Amino acid sequence: MAEKIFLTGIKPTGEPHLGNFLGAIKPALDLAKNNPNSKKYFFIADQHALTSIKNQHTMHSYRYNIAATWLSFFENIDNCYFYFQSQIPEIFELYWILSCFCPKGLLNRAHAYRALVANNLSNNHDEDRQINQGVFSYPVLMAADILLFQSTHVPVGIDQKQHIEIAIELARHLNHSLSENIPLPQPVINENTELIIGLDGQKMSKNYNNTLPIFLSGKELKKKIGKIQTDSTELGQPLDWENCNVFKIYGYLATDQQRLVLKEKYISGKIGYGHAKNELFQLYEDFFSEYKDRFDFFLNHPKTIDKYISNGYRKASEVAHKNLAKIKTELGF
Ligand code: TRP
Questions:
Q1: pLDDT tens for each residue of the chain, 333 residues long
Q2: Against a cut of 0.90, is the pTM above it?
Q3: With a 6 A CB cut-off, is 48 part of the ligand 1 pocket?
Q4: d(CA 44, CA 88)
Q5: Ligand 1 centre from 167 Cα, in Å?
Q6: Residue of 226, 230, 221 lying closest to 284 (CA atoms)
Q7: Which class for 145: exposed (0-12), middle (13-18), buried (19 or more C-beta within 10 A)?
Q8: CB 17 less than 6 A from any atom of ligand 1
Q9: Which helix or strand (DSSP H or E) is residue 183 part of?
Q10: Does residue 145 have its Cβ closer than 6 Å to ligand 1?
């Protein structure tokens, strides 16, 4: 069987939240633990973040924030390589090559771009208003991230599914010009995480300002959990666990047994939402506390982050150089 190569990136545009954890980090973590001998590339997609973040300090702090996130979960797993996308110029060279193999119509059909156009039109603006070329060609850069390392498995959240499909299509186009095929990457998606709800019951997203960051604790976490919207059942009445946002979020992290216990309490009529929120608070803190300690450690020791990154960068850079050289030779450069 061909070698498995795992790769995924996180775009540093804010604090990592529960949706990121369940959609991308947790599936990657399960794969990494089950495949200790395979190569695993985990990177910070900082150039992708440039489509929206144009401020030096914000960029710097989010980049290190995501680097610390990767390390706090994966530090002790063998054969993981961590790097900043912006450190590997080969990615951008392959990005141009792939652009020349990419039908423009494929990008016209990309959901993220189309949503922005639709939004402009519905507000009676010009369709291109505030859409930069980076947003339009975002999927091509992502294909370059993936194909440069000959990745076979790409764990991502469900919202990235179309981007992987585009990467597969571009690999097919490029393969026509190569004697040795680049493997077609396979998305690894947990369909159960299709709809992770946020504090207001809508899909959890930075765009809706309803996220629950994973590295909050104490007072700040309490405050966030306090904002979760619930109905106005009076104390002493049974609570509707099936439609309760607190219960749903609890269920994302709880064991079956814990879920059952809380469900009994909801039905008993003996607890109110304040109590339920407290249970969620406890579960959340326990679940992430070990990781949060490491996260805080890394953020306070950026030199340690740099050490890991320079090691990962060295490995990634070597592979990138070799793979790009092969492609360029075959294209006549
Ligand atoms: N677009 C991804 C996101 O927003 C991040 C990303 C960039 C990525 N390049 C990638 C994910 C390559 C997987 C593979 O979450």
A1: 579 999 999 999 999 999 989 988 999 999 999 999 999 999 999 999 999 999 999 999 999 999 999 999 999 999 999 999 999 999 999 999 999 999 999 999 999 999 999 999 999 999 999 999 999 999 999 999 999 999 999 999 888 999 999 999 999 999 999 999 999 999 999 877 768 999 999 989 888 899 999 999 899 999 999 999 999 998 889 999 999 999 999 999 999 999 999 999 999 999 999 999 999 999 999 999 999 999 999 999 999 999 999 999 999 999 999 999 999 999 999
A2: yes
A3: yes
A4: 11
A5: 11
A6: 221
A7: buried
A8: no
A9: none
A10: yes
CA–centroid distance, 86 to ligand 1, in Å, is: 13
Sheet containing 80-84: give its strands across.
80-84, 39-44, 5-10, 153-155, 186-188
Are 20 and 70 spatial neighbours (Cβ–Cβ below 8 Å)? no
Give the helix ranges, DSSP H, for 111-184: 111-122, 133-148, 161-175
As a whole number of angstroms, the distance between CA 49 and CA 86 comes to 11
147 close to ligand 1 (CB < 6 Angstrom): no
Cβ distance 6 to 31 under 8 Å? yes
> What is the rounded distance in angstroms from the CA atom of residue 144 to the CA atom of residue 147?
5
